[in-house]
User: Which sequence fits this backbone?
């Protein structure tokens, strides 16, 4: 009853990723770590300027107390949550804060380069005008124009000298107020170490001083050349030649300024961290407050009983899926195959062979034949050309399933491509003993190689393998790019079926991949896969509108009359126990 008189509060959450700049040498030696970048982002987004900008954009009040920013543990992801009594307004505010943070965060990070860029742009305009004026003087030569040029040169040299002296004073002041030593033990006693902003200012001022001194030398050379021309009009031909030489020197100055301007722009781009939107906030369907169960709990025994039931339910979610029945009842997905534990897998990987191909009469190999047939039945209405193999967490056997499934399909006279899309922890090249693990999918996504140049033949006829290549520091950005869409299209053109081994589903890039393939195959290991992780994976797949084909129960042992593996239909399951793990290599796949 109490809840009926309380305002419902909704929470909307948006996810972003903080990416380090490709080159942060200007901030050395105190480079910001990923954690420091994330902490800086948290503080910035809760400041009043950010919130005021959101209020102006949304036309309603935004309070810091309604905004929560936190880092997802062990990742580069940040979650920004907003609470409001209107679910759509909560989502709009969260998304607006991200848009504003991307704009203002970049403006704050790049602001230190603005003065240098503006100064260089102004000098470029002045030199360009001087070149035009000199070219006109060459065409319409006169003593009056000649004297005007000399006067202008004197003014420019004086201005440069004044600017050089001011910069030298600023550098001396910086050196007196902070210690810029980078060698441990050499910091001056009583002098504080230079901050990151002071080091940036020192580097920019030093570069600017070198640039001004170089320009002053060029202008002085121009002035000397012009002075040697002398007065009168008797040597006009010679003086016109010297004027043309002066034009050439001005053009050299222009080229130098333009090069310096481009260097400053490049430095700005290479030293600016970026904020990448990973998942937009959507309007929540249920409020986070008031909690009806807590209000009912005030009632006494009925409330206590409900609280006990909630605790029990949460404990069940934290436990593993123990057998096929639990997995099927919880996830409501068809079981396409039961894959047994095989100790011979370790020896097979060491030799670079594929167990299901080398041992075709084993229950292990037969299980993959059953999986292949069930997948064929799944594509009666919609062809399966690209299949993603994934699992809720690491070490549940998804790579083992992907490799053996690809080999079994290739045996049915279909052209198959096996792609290692785990850009963080690739393993396909190692298990199959491929000759090169340095060229692969990453090279294609970066535009450095064509897809047909990175494939490698395997020991199985009709099976081509594309390794991941070098480990990437930005897998989400690469796999979410237009190049990845083109890779999937090319795989459909060049192969009958493409099997894609993905990262575990708790990583952000797996959701991106799932949305782009024809079907997703889930690998569940009884006794290891957490029910909560499996449910979260299912919800993310549904949000991504991925086509879920079903699940494979991996590393199970069925107890039949003959003591061997037994395979059943979707409505009849044996009791399965997790086999004792002795194969460390397979356990990592």
Assistant:
């Amino acid at each position: 009853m109490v809840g009926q008189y309380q305002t419902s509060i909704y929470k909307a959450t948006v996810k972003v990723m903080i990416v380090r700049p490709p080159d942060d040498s200007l901030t050395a030696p105190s480079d910001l770590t990923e954690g420091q970048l994330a902490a800086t982002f948290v503080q910035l987004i809760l400041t009043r300027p950010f919130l005021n900008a959101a209020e102006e954009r949304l036309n309603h009040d935004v309070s810091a107390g309604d905004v929560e920013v936190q880092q997802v543990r062990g990742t580069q992801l940040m979650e920004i949550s907003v609470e409001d009594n209107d679910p759509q307004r909560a989502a709009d505010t969260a998304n607006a804060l991200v848009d504003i943070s991307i704009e203002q965060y970049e403006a704050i990070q790049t602001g230190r380069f603005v003065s240098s860029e503006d100064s260089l742009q102004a000098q470029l305009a002045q030199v360009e005008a001087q070149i035009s004026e000199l070219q006109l003087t060459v065409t319409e030569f006169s003593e009056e124009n000649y004297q005007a040029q000399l006067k202008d040169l004197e003014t420019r040299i004086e201005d440069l000298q004044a600017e050089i002296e001011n910069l030298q004073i600023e550098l001396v002041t910086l050196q007196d107020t902070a210690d810029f030593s980078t060698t441990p033990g050499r910091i001056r006693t009583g002098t504080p170490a230079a901050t990151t902003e002071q080091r940036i200012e020192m580097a920019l001022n030093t570069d600017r001083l070198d640039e001004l001194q170089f320009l002053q030398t060029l202008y002085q050379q121009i002035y000397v050349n012009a002075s040697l021309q002398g007065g009168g009009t008797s040597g006009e031909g010679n003086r016109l030649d010297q004027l043309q030489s002066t034009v050439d020197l001005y053009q050299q100055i222009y080229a130098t300024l333009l090069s310096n301007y481009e260097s400053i722009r490049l430095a700005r781009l290479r030293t600016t961290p970026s904020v990448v939107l990973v998942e937009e906030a959507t309007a929540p369907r249920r409020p986070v407050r008031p909690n009806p169960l807590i209000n009912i709990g005030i009632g006494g025994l009925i409330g206590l009983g409900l609280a006990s039931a909630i605790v029990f339910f949460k404990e069940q979610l934290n436990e593993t899926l123990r057998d096929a029945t639990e997995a099927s009842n919880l996830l409501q997905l068809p079981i396409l195959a039961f894959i047994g534990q095989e100790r011979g897998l370790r020896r097979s990987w060491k030799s670079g062979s594929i167990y299901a191909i080398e041992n075709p009469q084993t229950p292990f190999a037969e299980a993959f034949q059953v999986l292949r047939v069930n997948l064929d039945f799944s594509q009666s209405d919609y062809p399966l050309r690209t299949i993603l193999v994934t699992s809720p967490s690491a070490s549940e056997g998804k790579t083992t399933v992907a490799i053996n499934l690809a080999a079994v399909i290739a045996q049915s006279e279909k052209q198959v491509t096996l792609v290692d899309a785990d850009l963080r922890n690739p393993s396909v090249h190692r298990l199959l003993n491929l000759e090169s693990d340095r060229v692969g999918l990453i090279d294609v996504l970066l535009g450095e190689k064509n897809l047909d140049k990175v494939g490698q033949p395997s020991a199985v006829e009709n099976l081509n393998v594309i390794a991941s290549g070098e480990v990437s520091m930005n897998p989400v950005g690469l796999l979410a790019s237009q190049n990845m869409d083109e890779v999937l299209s090319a795989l459909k053109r060049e192969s009958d079926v493409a099997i894609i081994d993905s990262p575990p589903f708790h990583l952000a890039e797996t959701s991106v991949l799932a949305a782009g393939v024809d079907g997703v195959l889930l690998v569940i290991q009884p006794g290891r896969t957490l029910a909560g992780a499996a449910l979260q994976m299912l919800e993310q797949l549904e949000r991504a509108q991925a086509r879920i084909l079903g699940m494979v129960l991996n590393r199970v042992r069925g107890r039949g009359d003959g003591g061997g593996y037994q395979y059943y239909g979707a409505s009849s399951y044996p009791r399965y126990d997790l086999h004792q793990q002795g194969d460390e290599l397979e356990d990592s796949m």
Q: What stands out?
A: The first strand starts at residue 10 and ends at 19. Confidence is low (pLDDT under 50) at residues 24-31, 559-588.
